[in-house]
Amino acid sequence: MEKRLYDPLEIKKELAVLYRHFPEVKRLLRTFGCDGLTAEDLFQEALIIYLRKKNDPGFEFQLAPVHFIKQTCKLLWYNASRKDQKQGAGSLETDPEETPETWMEKELQYKQLESALTKIGEQCRELLHLFYGLGWNMTDIAKKLGFRNDKVAKAQKYRCIQKAKELVQEAQLNVELNQF
After folding, report:
1. Distance of CA 16 to CAs 11, 48, 61, 118, Å?
2. Cβ neighbours of 85 (radius 10 Å)
3. What is the tens place of the pLDDT at every residue in 20-52?
4. Cα–Cα distance between 129 and 155 in angstroms, integer?
5. Phi, psi of 134 (to 5 degrees)
6. Please, what's the b/e burial string for 86-107 (b: 16 or more CB within 10 A of its CB; e: otherwise)?
7. Which of 76, 114, 137, 180 is deepest in the core (most CB within 10 A)?
8. C-alpha 140: how far from its chain's center?
9. What are the CA-CA distances from residue 24 to residues 21, 33, 51, 118, 132 (Å)?
């Protein structure tokens, strides 16, 4: 009788540990633009690959199992998104009238947001960029922009967001009026 390369109970325990890391892997994949359902599929595929590699006597792991799963998920997502881009590249010659209206609406919203961001002022743009774009905390933003403390920075961020919202709503109203 041939010797088993793995113990099913050991694999079950290891999978339970790896499944606890799924939310972390899902967050990682979402930063690359992956949706939640696809993240689940990629995680499952990565687990299958991991088990196959673990069963292969000629394969030696260079990473901890969790990191192996993360890297495998990243590669699977990269390959899937690259394949989708190649398939989508041929559809650029479609008729503009066939373009979904939701895409046009999103494009219009982006233009309105971009316009609002140019009108809100340099300090607001920098504050919002530091907070949303770079992920700085309010204490560091307060120091960088010369506010007294993080509470003042939070209040200023709120005012900047409100001003941007008003400008976007104003632009939407102008577009709606121009359509009639």
Report:
1. 9, 14, 19, 49
2. 9
3. 989 999 998 988 888 888 999 999 999 989 888
4. 16
5. -105, -10
6. eeeeeeeeeeeeeeeeeeeeee
7. 76
8. 24
9. 5, 15, 20, 35, 20
**Token pair belonging to 153:** 């920075």
Query: What confidence score (pLDDT) does residue 61 get?
Result: 80
Single pTM value for the model: 0.46
Asked whether the beta carbons of 79 and 42 are under 8 A apart, the reply is no
Which of 77, 83, 15, 3 minimizes the C-alpha distance to 48? 15
User: Distance between CA atoms of 47 and 42, rounded to whole angstroms?
Assistant: 9
Q: How many CA atoms lie within 13 A of 62 on its CB side?
A: 2
3-state DSSP call for residue 141? Answer: helix
pLDDT at 11 exceeding the cut of 50:
yes
Name the packing angle between helices 65-89 and 8-19 (round to 10°).
70
Higher pLDDT, 158 or 132: 158
| % residues pLDDT > 70 (the chain) | 83
SS3 32: coil
